[in-house]
Specification:
Elements lengths: L10 H11 L13 E4 L1 H4 L7 H13 L9 E3 L5 E4 L5 E3 L8 H10 L3 E7 L15 H11 L3 E5 L7 H18 L4 E4 L7 H7 L2 E3 L7 H11 L11 E3 L3 E2 L11 H13 L4 E4 L7 H7 L2 H7 L8 E4 L25 E7 L5 E7 L5 E5 L1 H4 L9 E6 L4 E7 L3 E6 L4 E10 L3
Helix pairs in contact: 5-6, 9-10, 9-11
């Protein structure tokens, strides 16, 4: 029996899963990848994780023009919750969120935005705050009463095995469904084995560890290269957050790498959740997140995740077992990749990623172009999505992007078939 996105199960396993998990997240959300903000790499669990900063972030989402481009979620990550009352109801940290979570949600909504919170399927969150284990129903009802629109559920302090993960995420999915409120559900399980069943559990599912730095970004790109068949409208592979600057304006990756990550997340049909200091974005960073042509690739209605057309793993760590979900990755491979994504109109978006030590011409040869259908018998126009410039009409079984910058630089192009005269 075959489910969504080509996943085939034997009849016995299908019935077992149907009985245990229901095989449906019935919220109508995630038709395209989510866009918005996540607090983690901006403020982590520092003193800046407070309602004043979150309100300022919502203000910045509007004042920068990002909200008009589709960025709608303002999502709290860890360290907002403090405890549970005598009835088991979770409550926020009164020292940092004195107005309460509903008041914060109301403020975000008043800006025309949506509000998200974080929890964990285990007994505690990664930061030691209350987890949702055995409180799924009451937590879902509480979130709905606050006006929550997005829930991210992590996997710390919980068994890291298939059965427990599927069952616990299934409980929260069912609890959210039962509220009657459309709430986007983001699984943060860190493992690739969530992908085949992710569509039945949530709107997106983390497929790797925290990206943390440039090495982590490359690891999750490599991990995601094998999972394209499991993503599509309603459910997406999530290779983690878009990195930028902390609340103290310390860069986690440089601005060129931020632009490359943004291009790759667009081609991989990944959620675009900016985890950076939106209150003090540089002009370059704002231009990166505001590129409507690249956003259009990410939000393309066909919903087909891009694939690696040329190159091998970008990081030697891609196949290694990490000690924890927050490992910092530093062992980078000297590699080049070309990725492509087919779009609704039949065109393809290609990213030429150079992680080598020197700028280089990068060629997508006949083998690279074969999955796209572009060859010597076709004519195609090429447009640079960062220069916003048409580069001309070409025919041939190879295309070269010239002098792609080194150490995480990239070029992003759109190839469009031209009809024969």
């Amino acid at each position: 029996l075959c489910l969504n996105h080509g996943l085939c199960l034997n009849h016995g396993l299908y019935l077992n899963l149907q009985c245990r998990f229901g095989l449906a997240l019935d919220n109508g959300l995630g038709v395209t990848p989510a866009m918005g903000y996540n607090s983690w790499y901006d403020v982590t669990c520092s003193n800046d994780m407070n309602e004043k900063v979150i309100r300022q972030t919502a203000d910045a989402m509007v004042s920068t023009g990002l909200a008009k481009l589709g960025y709608q979620y303002i999502n709290l990550d860890d360290c907002w919750a403090k405890g549970r009352d005598s009835q088991g109801v979770v409550y926020g940290d009164n020292a940092t969120f004195p107005s309460g979570m509903k008041a914060l949600a109301d403020y975000v909504h008043s800006k025309g935005l949506l509000f998200g919170v974080y929890t964990d399927r285990g007994t505690n969150t990664c930061g030691g705050r209350p987890g949702t284990q055995d409180h799924e129903i009451i937590d879902a009802k509480t979130y709905a009463s606050w006006g929550v629109d997005y829930v991210k559920e992590d996997s710390c302090h919980a068994p890291n095995n298939h059965g427990s993960g599927y069952a616990q995420y299934g409980k929260m999915r069912d609890a959210l469904n039962a509220t009657g409120r459309p709430i986007y559900f983001s699984l943060c399980g860190w493992e690739t084995w969530y992908a085949p069943l992710g569509y039945s559990l949530g709107n997106s599912w983390r497929i790797g560890r925290d990206d943390t730095n440039w090495g982590g970004v490359l690891v999750n790109i490599d991990v995601n290269a094998k999972l394209a068949n499991y993503a599509g409208p309603g459910g997406w592979n999530d290779p983690c957050l878009l990195l930028g600057n902390t609340s103290k304006n310390t860069p986690r990756i440089n601005e060129m790498q931020q632009r490359t990550q943004f291009s790759m997340w667009a081609v991989m049909a990944s959620p675009l959740l900016i985890s950076s200091n939106l209150r003090q974005l540089s002009p370059f960073a704002l231009a990166t997140y505001s590129n409507e042509e690249v956003i259009a690739v990410n939000q393309d209605k066909m919903g087909r995740q891009g694939i690696r057309l040329a190159g091998a793993d970008l990081s030697a760590s891609a196949t290694q077992v990490k000690k924890s979900h927050t490992d910092v990755i530093s062992d980078l491979a000297d590699q080049q990749n070309i990725w492509g994504r087919q779009l609704m109109d039949g065109s393809w978006a290609l990213v030429f990623l150079n992680n080598g030590k020197a700028a280089a011409d990068m060629t997508c040869d006949s083998t690279c172009l074969a999955p796209t259908g572009f060859d010597s018998s076709t004519q195609y126009s090429v447009r640079d999505l960062w220069l916003h410039k048409d580069l001309g009409v070409f025919n041939g079984s190879a295309y070269t992007a010239e002098q792609v910058p080194a150490a995480g630089g990239s070029t992003m192009l759109k190839f469009t078939f031209k009809p024969s005269l």
